[in-house]
Each structure stands twice: as C-alpha cells, then as structure tokens.
C-alpha cells in the first residue's frame, strides 16, 4: 500500500508539470488554431536560463522570475516573427512552422548551455515522510503552483470577458472581428500565456527531473498528449489529462517496467485519436481536431 501511495504522489507531481505544458497548447489552440510544437522548448529554455542565472550569482527567486519573463518574451517574439506574417494559417502550416522554431531553439540551447543535464536549486530543499511515503518539498511546490496557475488560466478563459473574447477568435473569427475583437492582439496574448505557463513548468520541474537542451522534446510530447485528452480546447481537460498521464506513467514504471514508461503517452495518444477524437475529457473539439 505504501508503494502505491508513493507512486501515486510521484505521478501527481509529475502530471502537474505535464498539465502546465498542456495548458500552453490549449491557450494557443483555442485562440488561433495553432498547435505549437515549441511548447516543450519553452519549459526547457526556462530551466536552463534559471540554472545559468543562479550559477552567475543571482538569487533563486530572481533567477526564476528572469527565466519566466525571458521565455514569455521569446514566445511573443515567436508569434510576431513566425505566426503573424502567415496570412492563411492551417494546422499543417502551424506544425511545420513551430517544428522549425522548436528545432532552432534546441540548437541554440545546445550551443549556449552545452549537452549536460542539470538541475535547478529547489525552492525548498529536503522533504519529509507521511505514513511511509517520502514527500519532497519541491513536489509540494509543483502541486501548489500548478494548481494556482491552472485555476488562474481557467478563470481567465471561462469567467472573464477578455478570456471569452480570446476564445471567440478561434470559434467565430468573423463574428469576433465584427464586434471589434482584434485577432492579432488575441494571438499575441495567447502566446504570452503559453510562454509563461511553459516557463513555470520548466523551472518547477528542473530541480527533480533535470533540464537539458533536449528535455523539451519529452515535456512537449507529454504536454501535447495531456492536452489531446482534453480535446485541445479545455483547460480543465488538459489538467486532468496531465495528472492522468503522470499517474499512469509512474504506475507502469513501478509495477511493469521502467522501459515502458514513455510508451504510455504514445499508447494514450493512439487510443484517443482513434476511439475519441474529442478527447476523454472533451466533447466539442471533435470537428476541429
């Protein structure tokens, strides 16, 4: 029983990171219909920037803020230089463009930070045990901050006029223009949100899962699968998908084989795309996906 609880807690903390990355996919897709394959690189870049800043003598919190702001700026620049100039954006075009950005960011991170994986200093070192379950303080920070960020993004999109206006740009672009909603501004804001949540995921995960120039590939894949479980248009579905994926991965690694851990994401993705294109937690995305 203790082993099961340990695996479940580890899966939830890992799934919370996937959920944040997934929210980035949802934030962009719900506004512009773009699938951003560079979302994982946002997380990896944030982790490396924070690690480098701490290594240069900057306090940890200041380094985290610098990393989040820097990556959010990168996301905004990406939108202006890569997405905005395209007049007729399709899903295929967005995949090609963002894959190119992803590849470029990987090469830049390898060139600047080198090939070695490193870990950021935990926000609170150490941990404790409850009923035989070992809990690290960093894992609690991951769950707490991921929960706050998820609720904030959900509230913004679902409960505010500004958030509903952003969603209208993808669902009814012509009507959105007629009522004065700027599609250009909406796309920019969506990338800003995606860059911010991706960066937060990266700095939270780095102390436990470590960060390297290629770690964004794995995070991006897991985040995309989590977002797909929610139909790519639901923040709540993305969070639930991330938590489910994290738990299934740790249970698979603990009870079957660690070598099959990453296969869980691919298996889930195939099942969802074949059996339920709208996502396990989504109902209205089938036509768009």
Number of domains: 1
Radius of gyration over C-alpha positions, nearest whole angstrom: 18 Å
CATH class: Mainly Alpha
The general outline is globular
Please describe what this structure looks like.
- The chain is mostly helical.
- It has a single domain, classed as ABC transporter involved in vitamin B12 uptake, BtuC, CATH 1.10.3470.
- It is built from 11 helices and 2 strands; from the N terminus they run ααααββααααααα.
- A hairpin with a 2-residue loop joins β1 and β2.
- α1 (2-32) crosses α6, α1 runs antiparallel to α8 and α5 (137-159) crosses α6 (161-171).
- The longest helix has 31 residues, at 2-32.
List key phrases describing it.
289 residues, mainly alpha, ABC transporter involved in vitamin B12 uptake, BtuC, 11 helices, 2 strands, 3% strand, membrane, ABC_transp_permease, cell membrane, ABC transporter permease
């Amino acid at each position: 029983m203790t082993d099961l609880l340990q695996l479940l807690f580890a899966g939830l903390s890992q799934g919370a990171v996937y959920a944040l990355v997934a929210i980035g996919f949802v934030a962009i897709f719900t506004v512009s219909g773009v699938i951003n394959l560079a979302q994982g690189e946002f997380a990896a870049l944030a982790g490396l920037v924070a690690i480098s800043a701490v290594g240069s003598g900057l306090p940890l919190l200041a380094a985290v803020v610098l990393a989040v702001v820097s990556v959010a700026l990168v996301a905004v620049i990406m939108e202006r230089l890569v997405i905005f100039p395209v007049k007729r954006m399709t899903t295929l075009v967005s995949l090609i463009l963002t894959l190119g950005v992803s590849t470029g960011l990987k090469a830049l991170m390898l060139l600047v930070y080198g090939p070695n994986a490193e870990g950021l200093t935990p926000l609170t070192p150490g941990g404790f045990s409850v009923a035989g379950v070992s809990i690290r303080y960093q894992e609690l920070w991951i769950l707490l901050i991921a929960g706050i960020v998820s609720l904030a993004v959900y509230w913004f999109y679902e409960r505010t006029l500004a958030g509903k206006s952003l969603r209208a740009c993808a669902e009814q672009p012509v009507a959105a223009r007629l009522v004065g909603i700027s599609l250009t501004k909406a796309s920019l804001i969506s990338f800003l949100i995606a860059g911010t949540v991706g960066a937060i995921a990266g700095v939270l995960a780095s102390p436990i899962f470590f960060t390297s120039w290629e770690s964004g590939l794995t995070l991006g894949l897991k985040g995309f699968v989590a977002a797909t479980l929610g139909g790519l248009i639901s923040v709540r579905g993305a969070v639930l998908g991330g938590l489910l994926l994290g738990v299934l991965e740790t249970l698979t690694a603990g009870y079957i084989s660690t070598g099959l851990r990453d296969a869980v994401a691919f298996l889930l993705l195939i099942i969802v795309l074949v059996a339920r294109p709208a996502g396990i937690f989504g109902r209205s995305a089938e036509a768009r996906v």
